[in-house]
Amino acid sequence: MTVISKKKPIYKINAQLRAYLRSYQRDTKLPLHYDELLNFNESFPVTDLKGKDTLWESVIYPSYVAEQLHRNLTEIYALLKTDGDMSVMEHLYVDRIDYCTFGNSNPFRIRIVNQYNDNHDYFYVKRSDASRIYGLELEHILSPDNINYLVYQDTLIEEHIAGIPGDVFIRDYIARPNINKVRIAKEFVKFNERSFIRLLGDMRSYNYVVDITPDFDEEQYRIRAIDFDQQSYEGKKNMYLPQFFKENSPLVKICLELMNQETFRQYQHEERTLMARRLKAERWRIKDLVDCMRADHISPPEKIEQLKKELAEYHQEPLFLRCKSMGDIVRQNLKTTILSAIRKNKRAK
To answer: Exposure winner among 84, 120, 176, 310, fewest CB in 10 A?
Structure first.
């Protein structure tokens, strides 16, 4: 069983990472800071449809600050979705603000509603954390999905990633007769591979969602990470492999039942090939990002030492032992795993 170490500290954004964020239009001036949302005077628990506590609290602000606060949050939503074009946002309003004390980033979840048709959307306001930003960027560059977020000083704005929470999917969906377990197994193998290659840790079931898309004959499944706090932080190799978390054991069981070793390797190689193509298409951006990571401090020295030794043994690659930072380890892991896929493809041709 894989166990998370004590709560991860927040790492400040340094000058090099800040310059990267400006270069790629992630850094922009916002009309409020995270700390302003802490000035609520009342709160009450948010429960799900079954009455269970969700660990979120709906917060209420004094009337003399609520109006301006809601206006600023609507403007932030406009910046996130339409690059600040408020003309298409006049019919939107803030319906609810929720606060979560669980986790590292203590996020606020903002519910935005369209007053014409009552359709709603969410976005999140969090304390900025260099680890999380590296995770978001690696997800944006190397995964099948784009990530939309903004940074302003010590405030991070993230769009909502839609999907069924992984723990809910495991509890309520996988036993349904119409669920295609073969496709679920395939996607979990690919998600496991994506997480390991870019060293995204703590992918327990409540830290990802399952996006179900109807196809012309069957449903398709995509597992998407929603928590990036544990990007390249822990020292144990297995922390970066979702298969080793007990919360994911029902999905692992399906994989063992429906796949042999050859099929597993096929899906693993498929995902490495796709990541290699994404890396090639964004080679200069990934270089700029990894250069920032290599010069940054986002994990204690003892965790860096442990991880590089475990990966050197796992890959049978002594070059890991030369790594001096988590950024160095990410770079070497990308080279070791993705370059092997490129070489295999060339031999196949």
So the answer is: 176
